Amino acid sequence: MMAEGVGEPPLHRSPNMAASSVPSTAPVPSPPKRFLVLFDFDETIVNESSDDAVVRAAPGQQLPDWLRHSYREGYYNEQMQRILAYMAEQGVTEDSIRSKVEQIPPTPGLLTLFQYLQSRKQDFELVVVSDANMYFIEAWLERAGARHLFHRIFTNPASFDAQGRLVLLPFHAHDCQRCPDNMCKQVIVRGYLARRQQERGGCPFQRVFYVGDGANDICPMLALGPRDTAFPRRHFPMHRLLQEMQDAGTEGLKVSVVPWASGQDVVDCLNRLEEER
């Protein structure tokens, strides 16, 4: 006879006892979170490019000219693969790389924003969408005590192999002409929104927020609607390009735009929108 609970004796029922009379012990499911917050990583969560920070672990804290000049426009992931291979050849260790990542400061007010979202975790689902890599992002978030805040991380796979080399791979292939060859964030965002709506029993997020800074954060803006909000970092490429698109009346751009200089700016806006329940 199979026990009805792991480590518990089976329940003994009277033959006359209806099964429906046994009270259910199943947990009451939590209501779906109302809002989705998407974060870029480099220069959005952390205050510089994690790739640039890691280069400081190289001999002389810089790369040779032949390596720097090997970059092809739109193929940065490929370039970073060469850089990491070079660093491994030079004897740069995992500890050195991880230390450089962990030392990157957060953007101004970012930890305040994380604390706000943690205090309202019943309402906000958090996701990273970044063209950095999994090793850098998880190392930094774990050091900051913030990894648990994020439901998913979409980024380029990266891990150390048996020879001590950090092996970086592209995230996916796509047909978007706007984006680098290894990642289109609009494809990621559209796919995630559709999948989560299905997983949530057909219930979409009430609003989607996107916090970013770079040119590659523009394409996913076309996946968002008029109730959603883009938070471009003030005076960074995403901010300038969104302004140009708004001025030109770009078709398909429906999202509201709220620039930020500090995480507190994002908190203030989220507070206002939460009051519109």
Automatic annotation (TrEMBL):
Cofactor: Mg(2+)
Disordered as annotated region, ranges: 1-28
Residue sites binding Mg(2+) per the record: D40, D42, D213
UniProt entry tagged with the keyword Magnesium: yes
Residues of the active site: D40 (nucleophile), D42 (proton donor)
GO molecular function: metal ion binding; phosphatase activity
InterPro entries named among the record's database cross-references: HAD-like_sf, HAD_hydro_PyrdxlP_Pase-like, HAD_sf, Pase_PHOSPHO-typ
Binding sites annotated in the UniProt record for substrate: D51, D131
Keyword line: Hydrolase, Magnesium, Metal-binding
Similarity remark: Belongs to the HAD-like hydrolase superfamily. PHOSPHO family.
Record's protein name: Phosphatase phospho1
Native species: Oncorhynchus tshawytscha (Chinook salmon)
